Amino acid sequence: MNITKNIIDNLNIEIKINIVKDDYTSLVDKKIKEVSRKTNMPGFRPGKVPIGYVKKMHGKQVLIEEVSGILSESLNKYIIDEKLDVLGQPLPSEKTSINWDKDEEFEFLYDIGIIPEFELNLSKRNKIDYFKIKPDDEMINEKINNIALQHGKNVDVDKIGEKSMLRGEFVQLDEKGNTLENGIVTEDANMLFDVIKDEDIKKNFKNKKVNDTIVFNIKKAFPSNAEITSLLKIDNKQAENIDSDFQFKLTGISNFVPAEINQDLFDKAYEKGEVKSLDELKGKIITLLENELEHNSNYKFHIDIREELTKKIKIDLPDEFLKRFIFSTKTDEKLTKEKIEEDYNLYQEQFKWEIIKNRIIKDNDIKASEDEVFNYAKGIIQYQFMQYGMQYVPEEYLEEQAKKMLENKDEKFRIFEKVYEDKIVKYIRETIMLNVKEISLDEYKKLIEKK
Fold first, then answer.
1. Could you tell me how far CA 43 lies from the centroid of its own chain?
2. Do 326 and 433 sit in the same domain of this protein?
3. In principle, which of 1, 57, 109, 282 could form an S-S bond with 93, CB 3.0–4.6 Å?
């Protein structure tokens, strides 16, 4: 076997790998013998099929597999030994021509894109805006209201209001207004008053009290079969065929009432005694909001620093190689070469950012540990609970859910990438000069919309 390198230019290399018969013969023969022991053929005992027959049936496939294995191992070793800084991955050259039926010696050509030398030079001379979002009274009060709603409850009332929950019993009627024999009866139905679609039916409900009855066409009130299915606890096919009146006996009216903002609520939202006043609750919420909004600030900074560095740092790319690489590794079958050409400036930015990130990781020996990934997963789960107003979640539950999340290899890889990216952005923040600007959430949203 012989491997040679042809330097096309600073960004492109062609590697030629010659594999001769002596390189693969023993491996192919060994594999053929293994296949022979497992081959069944009429007229022969299992494992006793002549080698000649086995070669005729499986020889070409075995040859391809063994030569491909030698090729892959040799190419990877050569790249490591020669310390080639490869961009993407090697691509088989379009000039390669192999005839597996006739050739005994094989010549493989690979095109390789090289990551160029470039100057990073990050320092305090680099200055970029960092937008710090300040929590306002509206945001604080909204969080307090959400906590109160989270721990609220349904309270029975005498009159129907726009947001009332109505409990009752449905009985299907015939054309004469009598109970339909073998008709639908639902004893424990619940429906929200404001989802009734027909205004005349809603008016008929408004003055009703508990134990009153209302007769109405359920299809007019709820045109959606899905709503009728849920309300009457029937299947979709039954719901499609219903177009009759129902009698509804009102057995209860309730309104959802948020919890009072007092010590009882504080103890439900947090560990008992942790919050003892409204001011302390606001303090907790401000801290929570600042942490949440820091994620937004860092997200905006990430976008800005990526844009800034990919524009200012001169990095030449092997463009034609990369276009081939993008097309050859596409996951969307609809992606065309024309579309890649059209959007190539976006691909360029992505490749440049990956090159810059990897350079920062290498130069600063940045690593991501399993513990950091595990803690990051716990943070994701905790944040999800906070979004639903649950400020305290037991540690053992967070750990259990984090373990389940990381059992998914794709999810684990994504979190590893996020941990690395956060460390890179943190390094950049600490290395360059930040021009901190305090803005409102609305101002932040407008900035993001522009991007």
1. 56
2. yes
3. 109
| pLDDT given at position 361 | 94
> In a 3-state reduction of DSSP, which class is residue 35?
helix
- Taking the C-alpha atoms of residue 35 and residue 30, their distance in angstroms, rounded to an integer, is 9
> Could you give the number of structural domains in the chain?
3
Tokens representing residue 121 in the block: 């030079």
CATH number at residue 28: 3.30.70.1050
251: helix, strand or coil: strand
Q: Is 72 a member of any domain?
A: yes
Both 131 and 71 in one domain: the answer is no
Q: At 235, which helix (H) or strand (E)?
A: none
Q: Which two tokens stand for residue 139?
A: 């945001």
Same domain (yes/no): 278, 131: yes
- Please count the other Cβ atoms lying within 10 Å of the Cβ belonging to residue 15: 21
* DSSP secondary structure string for all residues of 342-356: HTHHHHHHHHHHHHH
Chunked in runs of 10, what are the mean pLDDT values of the chain (451 residues)?
93 95 92 82 72 83 93 94 92 90 92 92 92 92 89 90 93 94 92 92 92 94 90 90 92 93 91 91 91 89 93 93 93 91 94 94 93 92 74 78 91 94 92 94 90 69
Neighbours of 447 (CB within 10 A): 15
Residues 221 and 311 in one domain: no
Residue 426 within a domain? yes
Question: Considering the domain boundaries, does residue 276 fall inside one?
Answer: yes
> What is the identity of the amino acid at 245?
D
pLDDT of residue 429: 92
182: left (phi over 0), alpha (psi -120 to 50) or beta: left
Those residues whose C-beta lies under 8 Å from the C-beta of residue 448, and which sit 6 or more positions away, are 300
Q: Is 226 a domain residue?
A: yes
What is the rounded distance in angstroms from the CA atom of residue 304 to the CA atom of residue 307?
5
CATH number at residue 231: 3.10.50
Q: Which of 384, 145, 144, 391 is nearest to 269 (CA)?
A: 391
243: domain range?
153-257
Residue labelled with tokens 């929950």: 165
- Residues 411, 405: contact at Cβ < 8 Å? yes
Q: In the prediction, which pLDDT does 389 show?
A: 58
